[in-house]
Design goal:
The structure is a single chain. With 334 residues, the chain is an alpha+beta fold. 34% of the residues lie in helices and 27% in strands. It is built from eleven helices and eleven strands. It has an eight-stranded antiparallel barrel with strand order 2-4-3-10-7-9-8-5. Strands 1-6 form a two-stranded antiparallel sheet. A hairpin with a 4-residue loop joins strand 3 and strand 4 (108-114). Helix 2 (29-36) crosses helix 3 (40-54) and helix 7 (187-195) crosses helix 8 (201-208). It is globular. 40% of the residues are buried. Residues 10-54 form the HTH asnC-type domain.
Length: 334
Amino acid sequence: MESSTSVTVFDDLDLQLLQALETDGRAPFSRIASVLGVSDQTIARRYRRLRTEGGLRVIGVREISVRDQDNWRMLRLRCTPDASESIARALARRPDTTWIVLCSGGTEVVCMTLARTRDEDHELIFGKLPRTPRITDIRAHQLLHRFYGGPEGWLGKSGALSVEQVAALTPDYAEGPAPTAIAPEDDPLVAALKSDGRATFAELQKATGRSESAVRRRLDQLLASGALFVDVQFDAEHLGYGMFALLWITAAPASFDTVGRALATHPEVAFAAAAAGPYNIVATIVCRDSTALYTYLSERLGKLEGVQHIETSPILRRVKQLSYEEGRTGRGTS
């Protein structure tokens, strides 16, 4: 069926398929079909439609390690109205940016960065950005701890799948390897999965030059350890969600952790993290419309004990999400 804005609205089976892919992005269509009680052909057809009409992408993503976290930042850039678009696109071309959106009437660019070294981090914040014309203000917030997001997908809060269905789709790593870090020799494998998280083992073998058995073994190790996860990204407007916003929250010191943990349980919250700076929590929320956003802010979040101040930045458009430009809204937070 069609919405009033001519956006195709996907149905319950589409939502179930999306959550199934979020549970195991590399699950064979036959296993997903069996769990959902439909044919393999139906799942393949729905998957193709989600890709062509709903912006679905399944991609491999490096998890942020404790070592990397020191260089994990959220940047808020105030720009002149004529410059925000070009500045956002320039940032999107950098390998150390993972998520970029335009907010606040198009005069604010919000960018998540993950530099490889502290020198690279400082070069961007203290060197490149201050010298960029038409940036009027720069605020850098180091992200200290993630309450929700990354491997924990927003669709998991939808309830589209039963507990039993999720368990049937969850990969079994009960006897998995010890924690494994991504090594330089894994870069070709990670790059291939960044392009297509469902790439076949034959395709991964060709991309890496390793034997198929070696690729299988190494991929299992990286997924089991959590060093790598498979992310699902899509346009949430096709599920009836058309309002996205960043929240900059100040919580009382004694309630800081409690507020962050509470946010992680809210269905509207796709991402929440502790931050250093004038705000101590930043979150991304997904709502159906502006009325739902108002209800969430005034009733659920506004009444949460310990919340002292909230600044809301509606997201106008995504410029980059994780590894590619013109990203779609899905988890939208990783």
